[in-house]
Design goal:
Elements (H helix, E strand, L loop, with lengths): L10 E6 L1 H4 L17 H14 L2 E6 L6 H6 L11 H25 L4 E3 L2 H4 E4 L2 E5 L1 H9 L3 E5 L1 E4 L6 E4 L1 H11 L4 E6 L5 E2 L4 E2 L26 H13 L3 E6 L5 H6 L7 E3 L5
Parallel strand pairs: 1-2, 1-9, 2-6, 3-6, 9-12
Antiparallel strand pairs: 4-5, 7-8, 10-11, 12-13
Length: 274
């Protein structure tokens, strides 16, 4: 496969977490009680991306549009019974609805977003990304468009037959593919809390993993892993050369500051030697 040679050198990967752009704590109904997109929050964060003038691959979490049904149908563990395909289709539909709402907000801001759904662009193997349509991302970036992908369901080449392709996994995979300068996880909390006093860890290293306290943000079902899994993923990204931060998207300007190379409040995972 021949890819364009004009892809920007400094790509950053941003994940807008479901906890910050949806009412992730919703639970109970067919798609979560009142699963709701928060357009004002999304619009402000997208404006920060736009105004940073950085080249960004955008990933969005599923929040209340995906986790509840995925849990109800047991999609995390793969195929066990035929009715799970109903859940697969419902989750795929709902996360695309959320994706389209994010795209609508970006378009209103004069941005040029293009959706790349994992259900058609990703193949998994035993719950991990095995293949991703790298060429589409590269071609869109080469044309100065912003690829937008999202937590989704995807077919699985292993015994599972299908599995969840999480937004966090997409951030990690894309950051490595593009040697991303920085990965930014936008959440509803200031970062990772450690110790009995639940103090914010401004920087996190491997020895700190066992000191991580439970998160205090939005509740609700999350079938994609906990805060320790995110910390391990972030440590791995930093070790491979991508500086990573978890920050609070409810605090105005922090995302823009991180994209411009600043060090806003958050939990940072630094590259070796920094």
């Amino acid at each position: 496969m021949i890819y364009p040679k004009t892809v920007p050198n400094a790509v950053q990967v941003v994940k807008l977490g479901g906890s910050v752009i949806t009412n992730k704590g919703a639970a109970g109904s067919r798609r979560g009680a009142g699963a709701r997109f928060l357009p004002g929050v999304a619009r402000r964060l997208l404006r920060e991306v736009r105004d940073s003038r950085e080249e960004v691959i955008l990933v969005t979490g599923a929040g209340s549009f995906g986790h509840v049904l995925a849990d109800r149908f047991g999609l995390k563990d793969g195929f066990r019974e035929d009715r799970q395909w109903d859940g697969y289709c419902l989750v795929s539909r709902d996360v695309r609805r959320l994706n389209l709402m994010v795209l609508d907000e970006a378009l209103r801001l004069g941005m040029r977003p293009v959706s790349i759904p994992p259900s058609v662009a990703v193949l998994q193997a035993e719950g991990r990304i095995h293949y991703i349509d790298e060429g589409s991302f590269r071609r869109y970036l080469a044309n100065r468009l912003m690829p937008v992908t999202f937590g989704d369901v995807a077919l699985d080449l292993g015994r599972r037959r299908f599995s969840i392709c999480s937004g966090d996994a997409l951030v990690a995979h894309l950051s490595r593919l593009f040697n991303a300068e920085r990965a930014v996880f936008v959440s509803d909390v200031d970062g990772i809390l450690v110790g009995e006093r639940r103090s914010l860890a401004r920087e996190l290293s491997p020895p700190d993993l066992e000191r991580i306290a439970p998160p205090g943000g939005a509740g609700g079902k999350d079938v994609t892993g906990g805060i320790r899994a995110k910390a391990r993923l972030s440590l791995g990204l930093a070790a491979s050369g991508t500086e990573t931060v978890i920050l609070n998207g409810r605090r105005r300007g922090r995302l823009a500051d991180a994209l411009r190379g600043g060090s806003p409040v958050g939990t940072w995972f630094r590259r070796p030697g920094r």
